[in-house]
Amino acid sequence: MSKSDRRLVPIVSIDVAGSTRLIERDERAALRLMGHLFDQTIGPAVTVHGGTVFKLMGDGLLAEFPSVVAAVECIAALQNFLAAQPLSAPGGETVQMRAAIVLGDVLVTEGDRYGVAVNMAVRMQAFAPPGGMAISKWMHEYLVGKLPLTFTDIGSHPLKNLSQSIHIFIWHPDPAVQRASAIQYATSGTGSAHGRPSLVVLPFANLSPEREDDYCADAVVDAITATLSRVGDFLVIARNSAFAYKGRAIDVRQIGRELGVRYVLEGSVQRAGERIRITAQLVEAATGAHIWVGKAEGTTADLFALQDRVAEIVAGNIYPSLRKAEIERARLKPPDNLEAYDLVMRALPHLWAHRMHENP
Questions:
Q1: 193-332 maps to which CATH number?
Q2: How far is CA 213 from CA 119, 274, 283, 308, in A?
Q3: I need a labelling partner for 5 at 20 to 30 A (CA). Which of 167, 191, 275, 360 fits?
Q4: First and final CA of the chain: distance in angstroms?
Q5: Whole-number Å distance between alpha carbons of 201 and 235
Q6: Can you state the percent helix, strand and coil of the chain, rounding each to 5?
Q7: pTM for this one?
Q8: Coil, strand or helix at 104
């Protein structure tokens, strides 16, 4: 049995923002780029600041530091360096990392760390603006007067699969980005009137070499938008607003802020000869988390039927997926911050359960 002990240390979770999109676009190039970033930039910076990388996770890593100041100094130095010397992915998109730092008691074993602090750092990372970092309130209070960094309070937020909310502060080298991110979370009830969630269907990417296939991708989006617009439980952003993002590589969290939507549906269309493959994925705008992914295939011989089938598949799967996500979001909200819509979402699982003692 390996020797183990416990220690109170800062745990840092780092990942590449939008890595799923980068890998989907060019898997080999994206993985090579991320490997270079970790080996040549992030890893050496962690070592210089006295930290230890204890886990690599493809598009991210976990590290332990000897002090809170060392951990925050390391991330600030990394983000300032990457902002001054941006790294570009294939297609011209700027590669950005995001980080979260949590101080906690962890179980140390050979080559790994375990504990709530590790899970918390990974979950809290979703609240860090790309190119910035997120830390807990306690850490922020400890850092006062120790580092020349200005953090912004974004309030308490529930973390997935953790029972307690955590008070979060964020930082970014660009104060304007930091303010915009704070505004996003200040209005984290993003949705529509009466708390209903809102959704935007972004223009699908045409992955075929022929540019004339753009019309097929646009037609699929139109069909999906029209079908989803008939569902009364959530709002769908108008086509013209969505198509303003056509051909632009923008993080979904920025799109969520700009359009005021809670969910983003994105996808791609790819043709090989007479065969067409259409892929779609539903993403939570605030965190970038994938909620649902699906695909359909067909031929150009019956393109209209394929478009209608894709619209039906997407609508049929998104509705229950959104319901499930909304129920979980309502369940994690503090009891003193529940609107009528959230209360309905909390009640639905009990209504569907049809248990005698819950539905007399």
A1: 3.40.50.10610
A2: 43, 12, 25, 17
A3: 167
A4: 54
A5: 11
A6: 45, 25, 25
A7: 0.53
A8: strand
